[in-house]
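User: Please predict structures.

Assistant: First:
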Amino acid sequence: MTPSLSRIAAGIMICACTIANAAAAESSDKHAFEVNVIVEGLDHPWGLAFLPEGGLLVTERAGRLRVVESGHLAPRPVAGLPDIVEQGQGGLMDVLLHSNFEQNRVIFLSFTARGDGGYGTEIARARFLGDHLEDVEIIFRALPKRRGGQHFGSRLAMLADGTLLITLGDRGHRPNGQNLGSHPGSIIRVNEDGTVPADNPFVLLDGVRPEIYTFGNRNVQGLALDRASGWVWAHEHGPQGGDEVNLIRAGTNYGWAEITYGRNYGTGTRIGAGARRNGVAEPAHQWTPSIAPSGLAFYDGDKFPEWHGNLFAGSLKFRMLSRLEIEDGVVVEKERLLANKLGRIRDVRQGPDGYLYLLTDEPNGVIARLEPVE
């Protein structure tokens, strides 16, 4: 283990000494485990990041960035955040540390902001200095903005080449999914300063937003990297049925709202032209009935060796965690864990210590850790 990872693991293990609650052992097909609640009292937490000196950053949807140190929630939120609007499903969403955070202290935040035409997802870049942010800069704005509070996305990931992936929702306007002239309904790729990478798939096409990396995405709220292969996985909301797990590839059309396994709410009538069409990516897995997808993590740690190479997907609706086994880019087995035992799972992350961490989307939300039972 590198010195920096050792410090992270040591800092997080301090939290183990201050666990608020410990659950009884849970069983699964591959591992017995227990769920330990580390922190309580969070207001609808949304995203989680691990600090290299130990401790955690966690976002609250209402617009607060919180610090957890030695298992305790710092009483005051981090100061200096940009203007954030809690609007429907939106607010302060994801937090991501720069891959070179130990040297530059840079973080990225995804959030909902007000502007011409209504509301939209924006991305801020800033330096985190313990109790406040400095050098805050908005590096991306999803356009056009729209009234209403639906489908903002938004997860963040930094790829090995240093570019940033940003997931967006269609903002409740179905035509956005196939409209390359608008950002909503897509996954975005930009450089860390917000400029457009020269190798983006649509960068040379007239009338297309050059930041678009994929399109036909209804509302992606989970994003996970397989660091060994470089594959990117996404967890996406469908309508009534048809939630998806997708393998993300540049320039790909994921179908919404012309091709979907989902149906119209209430009536159950078909949306678009059906579930399959040439030129549209088939999901690696689709959930019917809908589970209300949330966070997604690819497990490559050492604490659960039989889970190595599995995806872990959160569910808001069924308050559960799903374990997904993958072969050749397709989900071949799934197992439901923790159904109705913890709460609405909002985020799933693998910590640098090899444990799995969960956030619950509740007025009294928690950070919980899955640990193996020997």
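Second:
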Amino acid sequence: METPLHSVTTKEIVELLFANGANMNAEIEVGKWKGQKSLSLAIQNNQTETADLLRKHGAKTYGELKTEGN
């Protein structure tokens, strides 16, 4: 399942979702994007301002989270 954070395109929406408790590290659960994080999608789509804001609120890529878990 994709969350609204996975299709974010503006800083304002990131702020709104964060203010309302969005999980900054939620991942897509099905389909070809399974396992993708919102930060990874922002980076892949060259949304640097959005990526910076996601990081500010604690978002991490799958690789970063995996590294922290070891």
